[in-house]
Task: inverse folding
């Protein structure tokens, strides 16, 4: 019949809530944004994002592309020291695009953006942004880690230390 689509057992309301667009909900609570952040970082990275194409531009596209995949999660990719710098840069670029959107996508984009910057700093010793080490250190210090996995929180903490050390030079 046509292309097989899957919602992985979720109903439209559940999918809408996951994407931060809760049916009938007009506000983005800290709790719903935190849930969206956890879900985004736990979801598999689209194959295309890890190879030749830019990551999807919308959360709808991102969700559609992520759910059928069984590969490593966004968090796993960002915490893997073997992830190529080019992939990290694409993830950062995607985060920057999302950060220009309205909430809750803005929060998701900012988190992806800084997590990718942390990965480049820690794994390649490169600052893949024009922000100074002092500015990045302040930004990493301001990150709310309540929603993060312990590994991601540690990753951001280590990047904060690198930035503080390099800001002294």
Result:
């Amino acid at each position: 019949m046509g292309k097989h689509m899957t919602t992985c057992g979720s109903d439209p309301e559940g999918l809408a809530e996951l994407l931060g667009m809760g049916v009938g909900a007009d506000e983005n609570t800290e709790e719903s944004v935190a849930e969206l952040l956890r879900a985004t970082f736990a979801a598999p990275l689209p194959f295309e994002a890890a190879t030749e194409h830019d990551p999807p531009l919308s959360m709808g596209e991102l969700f559609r592309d992520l759910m059928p995949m069984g590969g490593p999660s966004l968090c796993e990719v960002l915490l893997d020291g073997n992830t190529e710098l080019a992939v990290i840069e694409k993830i950062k670029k995607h985060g920057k695009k999302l950060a220009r959107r309205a909430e809750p996508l803005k929060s998701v984009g900012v988190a992806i953006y800084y997590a990718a910057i942390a990965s480049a700093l820690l794994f390649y010793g490169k600052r893949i942004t024009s922000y100074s080490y002092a500015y990045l250190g302040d930004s990493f210090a301001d990150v709310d880690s309540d929603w993060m996995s312990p590994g991601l929180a540690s990753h951001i903490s280590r990047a904060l230390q690198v930035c503080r050390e390099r800001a002294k030079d």
Remarks:
- Residues 12-125 form one domain.
